[in-house]
Amino acid sequence: MNMRAVATDEAIRISAIIEDCRHLEGPMLPILHKVQAEFGFIPESTKQVIAQALNLSRAEVHGVVSFYHDFRSHPAGRHTLKLCRAEACQAMGSEDLAKSVKARLGIDWHETTPDGAVTLEPVFCLGLCACAPAAMLDGEVYGRLDEHCLSDMVTEARR
Amino acid sequence: MNVTVFVPRDAAALAVGADRVASAIITEARARNLDVHVVRNGSRGLLWLEVLVEVRTDHGRVAYGPVKPSDVPSLFEADFLSGGDHKLAHGLTKEIPFLKGQTRLTFARCGVTDPLSLDDYRHYQGLKGLEKAVTLAPADIVAEVTASGLRGRGGAGFPTGSKWKTVADARADRKYIVCNADEGDSGTFADRMIMEGDPFVLIEGMAIAGIAVGATKGYIYTRSEYPHAISTMEDAIEIARAAGILGPSVLGSPYAFDMEVREGAGAYVCGEETSLLNSLEGKRGIVRAKPPLPALEGLFGKPTVVNNVMSLASIPIILDRGASFYRDFGVGRSHGTIPIQLAGNIRHGGLYETAFGLTLGELVNEIGGGTLTGRPVKAVQVGGPLGAYFPPSLFSTSFDYESFTAAGGLIGHAGVVVFDDAADMLKQARFAMEFCAIESCGKCTPCRIGSTRGVEVVDKIAKGIEPEKNKVLLEDLCNTMKFGSLCALGGFTPYPVMSALTHFPQDFAPVPVREAAE
Ligand SMILES: Cc1cc2nc3c(=O)[nH]c(=O)nc-3n(C[C@H](O)[C@H](O)[C@H](O)COP(=O)(O)O)c2cc1C
Ligand code: SF4
Ligand code: FES
Predict the structure, then answer these.
(1) Residue B471 in contact with residue B477, Cβ under 8 Å?
(2) Which residue, among B441, B111, B443, B440, has the nearest Cα to B454 in the 3D structure?
(3) Could you give the ipTM of this predicted complex?
(4) A123/B346 Cβ within 8 A
(5) Which of chain B's ends, N or C, has fewer CB atoms near its CB within 10 Å?
(6) B268 and B493 in contact (C-beta within 8 Å)?
(7) Is the separation of the CB atoms in A124 and B436 below 8 Å?
(8) If we measure between CA atoms, which residue out of B148, B10, B154, B100 comes closest to residue B354?
(9) Mean per-residue pLDDT, B455-466
(10) How far is the C-alpha of B222 from the C-alpha of A57, rounded, in Å?
(11) B444 Cβ closer than 6 Å to some ligand 2 atom
């Protein structure tokens, strides 16, 4: 596919998402969630398209995207590991767990391993606070984590 | 013989292997040629026992837990399908002390039923409140809620009936019910448990609210961190719509009401009601100045009820059993029951619904069984990241709105997070400031800048740089944030910080002293 074809393909997918959500009251967040689900991040070019469809300026759309921690400006790795950093998990040793997983992956929060396998994100509570420490790997939840299960998860993800 | 086995689908159960346990049971039953029907129920809230497997027997439901997939063959060997004895057996579920001691009004069905079975819901007294509501004048519904003494369970404790009355009295072509399901406080999961374990009760509560105030549309705004709750809620809404509970004619009445789930995008401040409304409208989640009250100018400028999940989920039983039934639970001006969430370093973590008035010490030591690590309790944070840290010397504090305020804290959404003696309270104070800096909506300087400064000041104290001067500075900073912030994110962050400093001064002592003490 040449560049123009890629751009057109992207535009078609975005228009479809916008059409899908247009009837909603306050369609912005539903659109952004779908764009991110489709592309893995919010491509720069989509902001203008969304702005036009919703009668806003590009800057306004950018302002919304940048406000929310969930929306990415770059694609994540093949897997996203969200490790809970909030208090109940801290009380069960999540800080040490985070330290060791960072060392194992060789990355810090918000970074992706060089092989593109894992992106590490902090999360502030998953509602699993009685089964702490907790994490989420690509939408799957994990509780009562220890070094051992976390390293198994990471190894599996990097395969 | 067909035996029913319950394996929860609650996220906390899934997080410790519930799906694998369920499939192990199905596989094992098949291999043994046994007729087993697995129901995926909500969680009973005895979270230290998850995965909690229950078997329906002639004497009642019998509990086994915490079950791992590898335990399944031995459960069959022990004839658990007839309630047989096993090292993981706990006897009848309803006789387990943690459950037996509770007063389950809001959570009456949670963990008992199949969350998406309307038959189950009706069988266990569901829809009675709504059936009653459609026969009442809307003003009488509001009066009933007011008389129940119900106060908002989202944190501020505002009387729910008064809020409803303001919206009911407002004139507008459109009104909204917005359910605040953003549940961002660490240590809380009651909203999640209800959405995953008894979603119809929230739908019923919102429909009653709609009828009471004249709103025809509802939104549940919840967190992207709760994918299971979102999908269960969406399924339940479709089922309710198909059954005529939602739609142009609620239960065949002249009232219309429908609803949708909307997903947040990872911003803690969007739990604040006006930030939430901005977010629903598709804007940045900046906090709005009040007035105007959301009750008068809320979503898209229309009169809007914003209520927490627990507040709305308590409505059906109030309508069904009557205001005084509900009101008679509790102490002082804290009426009814409160689903307390025991979390962190605790032996018996989970959800404990009880009338207001137990002491913090009873909750932590007796019901919660002390720390999971077996070490002494050092501190307990109540009410999420904006709540105070309590030392054991304050364990006689009664769990109700007024007593907690008097003790320099808040109950918030009733999360209780326990720390053992390994906790470093200076670190906890630093985290409170860091969290505020990360999550600030940026509207007011004391919150946005003060929190970042707060982190720096705590770091200086930790390094022993002019500790006395910096402690005074930290206190000043807290005062500025407390009085100069528009909302409770900046305004209440001083609670965890100052309570840590006040009750645990040894953790803020100069480094040599701290090291010598270790
Ligand atoms: C920073 C911040 C976060 C909040 N988060 C929540 C939340 O997650 N859930 C909630 O119900 N209320 C939350 N609140 C309180 C809401 O602003 C509001 O008081 C509540 O939704 C009203 O409902 P209620 O009267 O039923 O409690 C938060 C407040 C602040 C300042
Ligand atoms: S206190 Fe913080 S979060 Fe609240 S309005 Fe001000 S800047 Fe925003
Ligand atoms: S604090 Fe980690 S899951 Fe709630």
Answers:
(1) no
(2) B440
(3) 0.96
(4) no
(5) C
(6) no
(7) no
(8) B100
(9) 96
(10) 27
(11) yes
Whether residue B496 contacts residue B432, with contact meaning beta carbons closer than 8 Å, is answered with: yes
Cα distances from B417 to residues B113, B180, B389, in angstroms, run 28, 22, 9
Q: Any idea which residue has 């069984």 for tokens? A: B369
In terms of Cα–Cα distance, which of A42, A157, A143, A33 is closest to A83?
A: A143
Cβ pair B54, B8 in contact under 8 A: no
* Rounded average pLDDT over B259-287: 98
Query: Burial, B264: exposed, middle or buried (Cβ in 10 Å; 0-12, 13-18, 19+)?
Result: buried
Q: Which CATH number fits domain B425-517: 1.20.1440.230, 3.40.630.40, 1.10.10.10, 3.20.20.60?
A: 1.20.1440.230
* Extents of the domains making up chain A: 3-67, 79-158
According to DSSP, residue B366 is labeled: I
Distance from CA of B373 to the nearest CA of A (A): 9
Q: Under an 8 A CB cutoff, do B265 and A33 touch?
A: yes
Residue from A82, A84, A90, A136 whose mutation best tests the ligand 3 pocket (most atoms within 8 A of CB): A84
Could you count the other beta carbons within 10 Å of the beta carbon of residue B503?
20
CB contact under 8 A, B285 and A68: yes
Phi-psi category of residue B286: left, alpha or beta, with phi > 0 → left and psi -120 to 50 → alpha = beta
Peptide bond into B291 cis (omega under 30): yes
Stated length of chain B = 518
Give the CATH architecture of domain A79-158.
Answer: 3-Layer(aba) Sandwich (3.40)
Instruction: Give the Cα separation of A111 and A83 in Å (integer).
Output: 13
Give percent helix, percent strand, percent coil of chain A, each to the nearest 5.
50, 10, 35
In the structure, which protein residues have their CB atom closer than 6 angstroms to any atom of ligand 3? Answer: A 84, 86-89, 125-129, 132, 134; B 186
Q: Which residue, judged by its Cα, is nearest atom 4 of ligand 2?
A: B487
Q: Which CATH architecture has domain B3-96?
A: 3-Layer(aba) Sandwich (3.40)
Rounded Cα distance, A113 and A13, in Å: 29
Q: What pLDDT band is residue B510 in, cutting at 50, 70 and 90?
A: confident
Q: Whole-angstrom Cα distance, residue B384 to residue B488?
A: 12
CB B203 within 8 A of CB B260: no
Rounded Cα distance, B342 and B47, in Å: 9
Averaged pLDDT for residues B414-421 = 98
Place of tokens 């399924």: B235
Q: What is the pLDDT of residues B150-204, one digit of tens each?
A: 999 999 899 999 999 999 999 999 999 999 999 999 999 999 999 999 999 999 9
pLDDT at position A9 is 83
DSSP secondary structure of A12-70: HHHHHHHHHHTTSSS-HHHHHHHHHHHHSS--HHHHHHHHHHHT--HHHHHHHHHH-TT
3-state helix, strand, coil in chain B (%, to 5): 45, 15, 35
Distance (Å, whole) CA B8 – CA B5: 10
